[in-house]
Specification:
Blueprint lengths: L11 E5 L4 H6 L10 H8 L11 H7 L2 E5 L13 H18 L3 E5 L1 H8 L8 E2 L9 E5 L10 H23 L1
Parallel strand pairs: 1-2, 1-3, 3-5
Antiparallel strand pairs: 4-5
């Protein structure tokens, strides 16, 4: 089942490595039992309530948040994806970013960004100095999988920087 949710002019396009087997089976992004994605969105202020994976399609219309992955093939672990799949996925992701032109491309995991960025690097998390496409701001966020050893509070703090930018953009668009 496809977990991608895209449309033109999204506020944020969340980009993961590839779907987990559970997300793929259920048809919803970040659907693993231990994944903190929706909790982090809520605690950081990116949503005004806690969503479930099954409600993720609402994020597309209510918040202008979309979802895609660097590689579309589901696996149990990201290290099961081949280099050839990453190269092909990077070309396809660039096409999606230039076609759909989200305001912010949020790479959910530093490895996602580095796999897409090729020779570009980014230290730490947050907005990059230079975007990889001319249409979007790039934000590198920690992965939300339960396998990530970062404390929830640290993850929320990083995503709060994204939420502050989104709030600022919403105020600008309201004027």
């Amino acid at each position: 089942m496809i977990t991608e949710k895209l449309k033109a002019n999204l506020l944020i396009l969340f980009i993961g490595f590839n779907p987990s087997l559970r997300s793929y089976e259920r048809g919803f992004n970040y659907a693993g039992r231990s994944n903190r994605f929706y909790k982090i969105l809520y605690l950081s202020g990116l949503t005004d309530r806690l969503f479930t994976p099954e409600e993720s399609p609402l994020l597309l219309d209510e918040y202008q948040y979309g979802f895609t992955n660097l590689v579309s093939r589901p696996t149990a672990r990201a290290d099961e994806v081949t280099k050839a799949e990453y190269r092909a996925g990077a070309q396809e992701l660039y096409r999606k970013l230039t076609e759909f032109r989200p305001t912010i491309a949020c790479y959910v995991g530093k490895g996602v960004y580095l796999s897409f960025a090729n020779k570009h690097s980014h230290k730490g998390f947050g907005f990059t100095e230079k975007s990889l496409t001319p249409y979007s701001l790039d934000f590198v966020a920690p992965a939300t999988s339960g396998l990530v050893r970062m404390k929830l509070e640290e993850q929320v703090s990083i995503y709060r920087g994204l939420a502050e930018k989104v709030q600022h953009l919403r105020i600008l668009h309201a004027k």
